Automatic annotation (TrEMBL):
Belongs to the binding-protein-dependent transport system permease family. HisMQ subfamily. It comes from Amycolatopsis panacis. The keyword Transmembrane helix applies. This is Amino acid ABC transporter permease. Keywords: Amino-acid transport, Cell membrane, Membrane, Transmembrane, Transmembrane helix, Transport. One of its GO terms (cellular component) is ATP-binding cassette (ABC) transporter complex.
């Protein structure tokens, strides 16, 4: 038992690594995750709309993209983009792998978020689109103003869950060899663990990840509860209105 605590809960090493975790690691993890979440969300919406298009030349590229980036291991995608494309993109990013790490995470997130959006949009009753078209809206306007907002609202819990996964996937970019100022939480903990032969710095990094992910998990539960409660209230209101009309 003493050996376990000394290996994984050595407070000397934990306090030693915490300043770097909070100053450098946390900042870079949030930048990687937030940037990838924003880009991935925009990309995912485009992919979802393309995938639902009646035009094959739009639908097939979206399907191929989704299948590839959902089918490949995340680490392989990061290595191919971060190292394989580095020679092609050297004119844009130089030797800095940071933007390529964000690009890789964004492409991975876009594939999953696209499927989430597609499922949400398809769950909206077709009558909503037909009613909007009957009111004179174009297909694009009806989708943008009526169908898509309802679909996104229904998949908010799944979307936040994907953001949580993205935070954890950001640990994989350490394979790209970021410089000291670019290291994220896991890399900082791993470096000190490798130098000391003690795993406590990694445990400290894991605690910081929990500080990020646990509030997001509770946010998922809160959103899901509100959606369920709101749906019940709307259903009861519609039922009461129907009874009044019949009376």
């Amino acid at each position: 038992m003493d050996q376990f605590f000394d290996t994984f809960l050595n407070w000397d090493y934990i306090w030693q690594v915490f300043p770097d975790l909070l100053k450098t690691g946390l900042a870079n993890t949030l930048i990687l995750s937030a940037s990838s979440a924003v880009i991935g969300t925009v990309l995912g919406m485009v992919v979802a709309v393309m995938g639902l298009s009646a035009k094959r030349w739009l639908r097939w590229p979206a399907r191929v993209y989704t299948d590839i980036f959902r089918g490949l291991p995340a680490i392989l995608t990061i290595l191919v983009i971060g190292q394989g494309l580095a020679t092609l993109a050297r004119g844009l990013v130089g030797t800095n792998p940071y933007p390529l790490g964000i690009l890789a995470l964004s492409l991975i997130a876009g594939a999953y978020i696209g499927e989430i959006f597609r499922a949400g949009i398809q769950s909206v009753d077709k009558g909503q689109l037909e009613a909007s078209r009957a009111l004179g809206m174009s297909y694009g306007k009806a989708m943008l103003l009526v169908v898509i907002p309802q679909g996104v609202r229904r998949v908010l819990p799944a979307l936040v869950n994907q953001f949580i996964s993205l935070v954890k996937d950001s640990t994989l970019v350490y394979f790209l060899g970021f410089i000291t100022s670019q290291r994220e939480l896991f890399r900082i903990g791993q470096d000190l663990a490798a130098n000391t032969g003690n795993e406590s710095p990694l445990v400290a990094a894991g605690c910081v990840y929990l500080v990020i992910t646990i509030p997001l998990t509770h946010l998922v539960n809160y959103i899901d509860k509100r959606l369920r409660t709101g749906g019940k209230v709307r259903a009861d209101t519609e039922l009461a209105a129907g009874e009044v009309v019949k009376a």
